[in-house]
Write a structure and sequence with these properties.
Blueprint: E1 2-3, E2 20-31, E3 38-49, E4 53-57, H1 64-71, E5 79-84, E6 87-88, H2 94-104, E7 105-109, H3 120-130, H4 137-146, H5 162-174, E8 180-184, H6 192-209, E9 212-216, H7 220-223, E10 228-233, E11 236-242, H8 246-256
Parallel strand pairs: 4-9, 4-10, 7-8, 8-9
Antiparallel strand pairs: 1-3, 2-3, 2-5, 5-6, 10-11
Helix pairs in contact: 3-5, 4-5, 5-6
């Protein structure tokens, strides 16, 4: 992250493309006050198309996680606009924003966030229950089957490997049929083999469902599963690659000082 510089000149609003599912328009995010202010994002304009898999990468402190959180409506920009599908997030109060996240978005994080006292099946259904919705048991078992764990539905997290726990977390994110899935370092806590299986599952899910996936990662091998890799440095976009290899991603990251 860089210290707050002089205000950037006005940037002409860039409308989302016809097929954009996620669109950030001249987004700025400032943390802190006075001499301690940090401009974590500095005029980011970016679109992610429907049905695509985009990886966000950059050096530590570059703003990539802040970008993900703002795109997902988990944080609000200091200035600029964010659209998810047809929803302008600026016009939504916290209640409607929470409803949008609950009904149309899925989230997968490095920490699996499973409750140890609940079975796999109960963990998958929990967010819907907390939101006052009852999911048919068949829907929960179907999504567990999609991640290859239907036969483990009665197991608790302690009885599952790290890779299996992350697949349960992915099932939980997918059970509502989200339009967009946001993933923050989803393979960061996994070994290479488990991480590869999780990425293959995410890739397959996007290809089959037509959902949009936005993933923050530090791993070039993980980013190589994406259709597109967007690089961030010092809070600004620093280029992108389409259908890259892990070697191309690593080379670009080295150039950014990662």
């Amino acid at each position: 992250m860089s210290r707050l510089a002089a205000p950037s000149p006005p940037v002409r609003a860039v409308p989302p493309t016809e097929h954009a599912m996620v669109h950030l328009d001249d987004v700025v995010r400032v943390f802190g006050r006075g001499d301690g202010q940090v401009r974590a994002l500095d005029g980011v304009t970016l679109s992610m198309e429907r049905g695509t898999f985009t990886a966000i990468m950059g050096p530590s402190g570059s703003g990539k996680s802040t970008l993900l959180q703002i795109a997902a409506g988990l944080d609000r920009p200091t200035q600029g606009g964010v659209r998810l599908g047809q929803h302008d997030l600026e016009g939504l109060d916290e209640k409607r924003l929470a409803k949008l996240r609950r009904e149309e978005l899925g989230f997968v994080f490095q920490s699996f966030n499973l409750l140890g006292a609940l079975t796999a099946e109960q963990n998958v259904a929990l967010p819907a229950r907390l939101a006052g919705r009852r999911l048919p048991r068949s829907a929960v078992r179907e999504v567990l089957a999609r991640v290859g764990l239907e036969d483990r539905r009665g197991h608790r997290p302690a009885q599952l490997s790290g890779g299996q726990q992350q697949r349960i977390a992915i099932a939980r994110a997918l059970v509502g049929g989200p339009s967009v899935v946001f993933a923050d370092e989803p393979t960061g806590a996994l070994d290479t083999r488990s991480g590869r299986a999780v990425l293959a599952l995410l890739r397959e899910t996007i290809d089959e469902s037509g959902a949009t996936l936005v993933m923050v990662t530090h791993d070039p091998s993980a980013a190589a599963w994406a259709d597109r890799v967007v690089f961030v440095a010092d809070g600004r976009l620093a280029g992108e690659l389409s259908s890259p290899t892990a070697e191309q991603v690593a080379e670009r990251l080295t150039g950014l000082g990662a």
